[in-house]
C-alpha cells in the first residue's frame, strides 16, 4: 500500500471538514473538529490511548473495512457519549441518563458518518473503492485483546486517523481510528 | 371576457384537484424506511411526518426490507446501503425496478452511487442530509 504522509494529511483535513459539516447538519449545532492527526503508526499507540482511559467507562464501536482491509474504531467516554446522544437528538444535554437502543444507534450512526467522511476522501485520493460493514458495539476489553493480538504479531506500520470533536460548547472525546491492517479485519470478523 | 373567466376558474379547480391528489398521495403513500439505525429511522420519519407523510413501515436490515417489500408492497423504499445480513445494494439488485427506491446512505463513493442507479434507484441521498433534500426527493417520487 503506497500511502504517504502528504496524502494522509490532505485526507485528514478534507475528511475533518466533511465530519464537521456532517455532524453539524445532523445536530443543527456548530461542530468543531478539535484535533485531527494522520500518521503512519503502530497498533500500540491506540492500545496506550485506550489504556489511559481505563479508569473511565468507554463505549466502543467497530466496523470492518474492505478494499484495503482494516477496521474503523470509535471510542467515547460513556459520559460524553450520553452528551453526544442528547446533542444529536436535539434534546437538552443531561436528558439521557441510561443508554437505550435508540441511543446506541445514534452512536453507531456517528461512527458511520465519521468513517465514511474520511474513507470517501481517501477513496478519491487513492482511487480505491472502500466498503465498510455495519458497526458493532464491542466491549473495550475485547478491543484491547484484539489490538494486543495484532500488536504481538504485527511489526509493520499501520495508517491511523484520529479525531476528536467539540459540538456546541461540549467537548466530546470521540476518537475515531481508521486502521488498515488485514489481520485486524480478520480478527474483527471472528468477533462478529 | 367570460371565456377568460371560465378558463381561469377551470385552471384554479384543476390546480386544487391536483393539490388534493398530491396531499392525498403523501397521506396514503406507504413508505418503507430501511436502516439498521433506529435513530436514523426516527430522524427520517420525523422529517417526512412534518411533510405530511403518515404511512410508514420499517426494516432494520436487508432481509427484513426484502420481506416487507414483498408482503407490504410499499409505494416508496428509503434504503440504507450498510446494513447487517443483506446490504442495500443487494436489496435493490433483487427487487430491480419494480419498486421506487431512494438510497439514503453515508456511503458516497461514486462506484456505489452508480451501481445503485444501474439497479434502478431513482435517487441517492448522502448522509447526513439536508431535510429539504429528503422532502424534495420523496415528493418527486410519490407526488
Summarize the structure in words:
The complex is a heterodimer of chains A (192) and B (143). With 192 residues, chain A is α+β, with helices and mostly antiparallel strands. Chain A has a single domain, classed as 3-Layer(aba) Sandwich (Chemotaxis protein chec), CATH 3.40.1550. Chain A has six helices and eight strands; from the N terminus they run H-E-H-E-E-H-H-E-E-H-E-E-E-H. In chain A, the strands form two sheets. In chain A, strands 2, 3, 4, 5 and 8 form a five-stranded antiparallel sheet that branches. The mean pLDDT of chain A is 79. Chain B has six helices and five strands; from the N terminus they run αβαβαβαβαβα. Helix content of chain B is 56%, strand content 16%. In chain B, helix 2 links the parallel strand 1 and strand 2. In chain B, helix 3 runs parallel beside helix 4. With 143 residues, chain B is of the alpha/beta class. At the A-B interface, helix 1, helix 4 and strand 4 of A face helix 2 of B.
Summarize the topology.
The complex is a heterodimer of chains A (192) and B (143).
Chain A: H1 5-27, E1 31-41, H2 43-52, E2 58-66, E3 70-77, H3 78-88, H4 101-126, E4 131-132, E5 136-137, H5 140-153, E6 158-167, E7 170-172, E8 175-180, H6 182-191
Antiparallel strand pairs in A: 1-6, 2-3, 2-4, 2-5, 3-8, 6-7
Chain B: H1 2-28, E1 30-34, H2 38-50, E2 55-59, H3 62-72, E3 76-79, H4 88-95, E4 101-105, H5 110-118, E5 123-126, H6 131-142
Parallel strand pairs in B: 1-2, 1-3, 3-4, 4-5
Helix pairs in contact in B: 3-4
From the 3D coordinates, which CATH architecture of chain B would you assign?
Answer: 3-Layer(aba) Sandwich
Structural classification of chain B = alpha/beta
Backbone shape of chain A: globular
Largest sheet of chain A: 5 strands, antiparallel
CATH architecture of chain A: 3-Layer(aba) Sandwich
What is the CATH topology of chain B? Rossmann fold
